Amino acid sequence: MKAQAASSNGPNLTPRRRRWFTVVMFLLPLLALALAEALLRLGGYGDRYPLVFQEERFGREKYVVNSLVTRRYFSLSDDLIPEAADEAFDFEKRPGALRVFCLGGSTTAGFPFEVNATFPFQLQYRLREALQNNYVEVVNLGISAINSYTVLDLMPEILALAPDVLIIYMGHNEFYGALGSASTQRLIGGSRGFIRFYLTLRKFRLVQLLESLIAQISSAGSTAPDAPNRSLMQTLAGENTISYDSDLYRTTVENFRENLSEILLMARKQGIAVLTSTLVSNLRDFRPFVSSFSAADTLTRNRCEALLLKGRSLQQQGAYGPALEVFAQIAQLDSTAADLSYFQARSLAALGDTLAARRAYERARDLDKLRFRAGSDFNRVIREVSQAADMPLVDLEAVFRAASPQGIPGSNLFVEHLHPNFPGYQLMAEAFFEALKTLQVINPPEPIGWQDPLLGVPQVRDVIARYREKNGGVTELDLEFGRMRSFFLMHRWPFSDYPMGIDDYITAASDTVKMLASRHLKGELFWDGAHYKLATHYAGQEAFEKAFEEYLAVYQAFHENYFPAMKLGDLYFRQQNFAAALTWYERALRADPENPHLLAKAGNVQVMRSRLPEAIEYLSRALQIDAAHPVLDNPQKTTAYYLLGISYANLKDWAGADRALDQALAITPNFPPAHQLKDQIRNFQSQKK
């Protein structure tokens, strides 16, 4: 009977076999997942989206910032996912080079501007001018709509790139940025630890596939209409009313504290200096997005709203004192509405009580329930964490106050709620430049640590006096890029319910500038291509100074590219300023020393300057290189040989002149200047006989 029972129930498993069976059963799903992951990778699905990749640019091996790195953090359609700027810096860091990385969101990225109008570029321009060193690399790693989770996730890759200094300006996107606590991209019930774990998981192709499938299913089941005018701000904003005293608000502030603390700790362990900064925003000229009274009973709320209307009416009549009395009555009933503090601030400012006005403006920002502007608590956290980590901090908030009427920043330095205008970005760059000078980041005499304040009153005064002196090559076209982007932003939610397009935009520049800016924003022209076209337009009108500025803008941004320097040389050559033309051709040759076009142009200039031995050297080298790797067309080669013939003839090297002219005529038999010069040489020689 026992034997039959054993036979019917199967063989008994020993404890050892049972353990192995359990292990195998546990491993099978993991092996299946690993196999699926391997197959997806072999099939080329997905990407790990690294921060940088290697690429040769302008003849040197470079790191290039991966514009698609943002796909790690957003589950949005491709047209809405913001991109990182594809900045390039040396793969092999040069001896004595200073490498600075700027980290943060859209302000660091430079919105609504780009390339040379951003504060990282403006800082680089100042550092290169001060140090006389083109090996200063200020790399802009700012990305729109990212927050401290993204910066923390990128830190291992950032630290591996050998930065000397990190500049961190972040905090505005903690609610609505990628994985922000109130964002549509947040994780359900996501704690800080879970978000960190999730970011690790997203590097797996299987997770990327599952996310894509979920997004497709959600999209297919959605009944919401398409919204072509929907902005990134509107897409990301999940909760639009976040109270100052809510658990969500407090948790967000504390998560920001922990993320920033960990970022600074990672840098300190690597011995890398970090410069943090307080955050700035438009206080004076930007009314809070969302304001409401929080009194429990409807009667009190209605009374507060009625009194607020009365106070505003008095304010509009210039009765600022009586208006403040009404506002005080409201505050006794309910002081939680952001609008109440904002209009109190306006009356206080009008009466000259600037300190009280600033504090009221700050309270209005802090109480704004649509939290696109970081409040005072974030600046407090930045100060506390920087001091605890013994890291220097630039009090940019104080700098902006010092540069503003009544000490209250407004439209003098901002485009809208928080993005600086170009003078605002210049001010940021000058403040960071002064801070780096103070810290002596190059061969510092002692470890760089916390200083309070880092910039004293005299230094801030110097910053205010200097910040608009240097523009780093920014032209009217660059400002038009910014004005146009700002216009589109300000005519979308949450600024306006009535979207407007390019036909509604009225330019402050010329129609040509508007047209080129529009083409660039549509993706029809690269940034440098727009500058080149505008320069050509100006040169055609003989507005040479304006053409020079457009070419110079590109040169400042891409000094390793020979082309803008060559175009500057061409511009001076056209004006017969041959010395200046040669200077720019030589700069172009430093970028591309084996370029026959450049060598021929430099030779032509030397002919015009009667520097004939130098002309022969340039022209001979151009033709020698072209013989090995042809790039010059027949007219260009003919001209080069002809100029070589002129040079030899003027040096009375008749044999050399004949050889050069014969080669010119071998290419273009009917080339009158060469025939004429040969005749002149023969006549001269016969007269000598």
Verbal overview:
With 689 residues, the chain is mainly α. It folds into 4 domains: 2-42, no CATH class; 52-282 and 375-466, SGNH hydrolase (Rossmann fold); 298-367, Tetratricopeptide repeat domain (Serine Threonine Protein Phosphatase 5, Tetratricopeptide repeat, Alpha Horseshoe), CATH 1.25.40; 561-688, Tetratricopeptide repeat domain (Serine Threonine Protein Phosphatase 5, Tetratricopeptide repeat, Alpha Horseshoe). It has 28 helices and 8 strands. The chain has a 5-stranded parallel β-sheet with strand order 5-4-6-7-8, with helices on both faces. A 3-stranded antiparallel β-sheet has the order 1-2-3, with no helix packed on it. A hairpin with a 2-residue loop joins strand 1 and strand 2 (60-65). Helix 20 (527-540) packs antiparallel against helix 21.
Task: For the structure shown, list the relevant keywords.
689 residues; mainly alpha; Rossmann fold; Serine Threonine Protein Phosphatase 5, Tetratricopeptide repeat; 4 domains; 5-stranded parallel sheet; 3-stranded antiparallel sheet; 56% helix; globular
